[in-house]
Amino acid sequence: MLDSTALRPAAESALRTLVGRDDATLRDDQWTAIEALVSCQARALVVQRTGWGKSAVYFVATRLLRDAGAGPTVIVSPLLALMRDQIAAAARAGVRAVTVNSSNVTEWDDIHAAIAAGEVDVLLCSPERLNNPQFRDEVLPRLAADAGLVVIDEAHCISDWGHDFRPDYRRIRTLLADLPSGIPVLATTATANARVTADVAEQLGVTHGDLAAEVLVLRGELDRESLHLAVLDLPDPAARVAWLAQSLGALEGSGIVYCLTVSAAEEVASQLRATGLEVGAYTGRTDTAERERLEQDLKDNRVKALVATSALGMGFDKPDLSFVVHLGAPSSPIAYYQQVGRAGRGVDRAVVALLPGREDRAIWEWFGSQAFPPEDTVRATLAALDSDRPTSVPALETTVDLSRGRLEAMLKVLDVDGVVRRVQGGWVATGEPWSYDAERYARVAAARRTEEQTMLEYQRTDGCRMAFLRRTLDDPALEDGWTCGRCDLCGGVTLPAPPTSEAIASAQQGLDRVGVEVLPRRQWPSGMATLGLDLRGRIEAEEQAATGRAIARLDGLGWSGALRDLFAARNDEGAPLDAELPVPLRHAATRVLDEWGVRDGLDGVVGIASITRPTMTGHLASGLARYLGAPELGRVSPRAGHEEPTRHDVNSAQRLAAVTRRLRLETAPSATLAGARILLVDDSTDSGWTLAVASRLLRQAGAAEVLPFVLGVR
Question: In DSSP terms, which residues pair with 282 in a beta bridge?
Answer without folding.
Answer: 308
